[in-house]
Amino acid sequence: MxxxxxxxxxxxxxxxxxxxxxxxxxxxxxDGIEDTQIILVDDGSSDDSGAIAEEYASGHSNITxxxxxxxxxxAARNLGLREASGxxxxxxxxxxxxDPVIFKKIISLTxxxxxxxILWDAELRYETWNLLVPKNRDFFSHGGLKxxxxxxxxxxLVETLLRSSGDFVATIWLxxxxxxxxxxxxxxFEEGLIHEDELLLPKIFLAAASVRYIPEKAYIYRIHEGSxxxxxxxxxxxxxxxxxxxxxxxxxxxxxxLDGEPLKILIEGNLTKRYLHMIYKYxxxxxxxxKQIDRKLLWRTSVRMxxxxxxxxLYLFIH
Length: 319
What we know:
Layout: E1 7-13, H1 20-28, E2 37-43, H2 49-59, E3 63-68, H3 73-83, E4 88-91, E5 97-98, H4 100-112, E6 117-127, E7 150-152, H5 154-165, E8 175-178, H6 179-184, H7 196-207, E9 211-224, H8 236-257, H9 262-282, H10 295-301, H11 305-317
Parallel strand pairs: 1-2, 1-4, 2-3, 6-9
Antiparallel strand pairs: 4-8, 5-9, 6-8, 7-9
């Protein structure tokens, strides 16, 4: 590889033998992929994932494999980020795919763009009959943004999404990030944590001086029975533990970086909406978190009547 690499693709792999080839073939079908750096991080897989990764590396000079003890996707992504040499870094999941036609455009953009982040939409692909899985195929589309290529500051982007659609999606594979922007701002994944995107993405958005939005579905997110985030099979105790750490941490972060800004009210209101949804969806009081729920904070940051009603129910029924 040379110093002129524009894009590094980091793929954490854990027991993804059933899907890894589809992921890799979608990337390799993208024009310009030979000029990218692909870093495969085998995170202690016990299936044939490591062998498949080595198979691809042996046939392509731009693919490198690292094998490590299992430490979770955050640790694998951090390893990949530290080994990356591209101007931009894209974190792709090993059981997902890209649209090769659209991803060709993304590769080209990383040669000419200077934005801190290039943002796109994703298509959902369902491979499960679980009734708990949402069927909204536009869930990972930024519906509140104009469907033309636009450049925003990170704060403008978040405010536009919150005012127009009431939400923003915190998912790492919905974009590619200027490597020096991430490393220079200490924007690494917190290791040992699931739902790690929900903690990192708000920090990325609010730190970004510029975000280029491409209104196309460049990524294909697969939901299958083995998906960590499949709501029908996920470990709800583990999810509760993670989110009861992430959400309070984000209130502290917003206090620090948005003090006195109008965006703080909007983004805290969105966080409270998510927090309350999680409390009731997972019934987290069953996991020993009754005393940790800060009802006063939730009441103070609620901006919707529905959210205030949900906080009142916490006062009435959770002691």
